[in-house]
Please model this.
Amino acid sequence: MGMQSKYIWMNGELVPFEKATIHFLTPALHYGVAVFEGIRSYNTDKGPAVFRLKEHAQRLIRSAEVLGFRTLPWTWEEVAEAIKDTVRINEFADCYIRPVIYLDGGGWNLNIDNGKPSLAIAVWEWANYLGEEALEKGVRANISSFTRHHPNVMMTKAKISGNYANSALAKTESARLGFDEAIMLDPQGYVAECTGENLFVVRDGRIFTPPTVTVLEGITRDAIITIAHDLGYEVHERPISRDQLYTADEVFVCGTAAECIALCEIDFRRIGSGKTGPITRSIQRVFYQAVRGKLPQYESWCAYVNPPLSSSLDQTTSVASLGASS
Model:
């Protein structure tokens, strides 16, 4: 399954896929001066729905401001509508969405003020980022030799394209070593996050996750914490050491692309039972129901692309019963 679609949205126009090009000398290509979002649309009983579209569109604008763009010609509301338009015209239901704000022309002296921003939005059909078997079996990871960015070296709260050279180094190294994913430590040596996912540790029925000082404040991370609380689990932000991963009952990661996936092995050490654990599974179950509009309490997370139809949701369904079911 490729990344093809009928149209890509570029600066207010829906351009045929093969004509959606930018010039080689666009400074974003040379210097990584761009920001992006990773978003998903899911098929629901009321048609395609973009998961937490408002939060993603707002973070895209904030990332551009953090990078240094002083004025932007779009509001987050306009970005959100353009995203829905792009999904709708391509007639996708389950798809991945990639909006990018990039420095387009000027800025060759590394001064963002001397360039202008452009916005493009692509969508394509995409299955699970870490593979179909990952949901049941989990994936294997290792501690990367590459350290996550220091927050005063790169802005870790913004999805800046140039930041992801760090992720590419770590991911490629791990893949060449035979692992599925890399876990990156922060500059102080504590667990930070994976190359594109936030990380959670389960010990004695409680859930722990690294503080957000050096990691991206993930939107899926926020959803997972909300679901965990609703299921009755305690979630604590605190520093996590590398060896605490090895002795965890469960470790799982989450992100727009990966969704919610267990780590069954880290550095050749089996984690828990060596497969997706019960707490991870309970959170997964609710998450996958929520993104498809099956749970009324999370309805606000779904931005429907088409005009909404009459709801067929079972209003009696509870998140707790879903989490406990087998």
Remarks:
- Residues 308-322 have pLDDT under 50 and may be disordered.
- The longest strand covers residues 95-106.
- The chain has two domains: 7-124, 134-288.
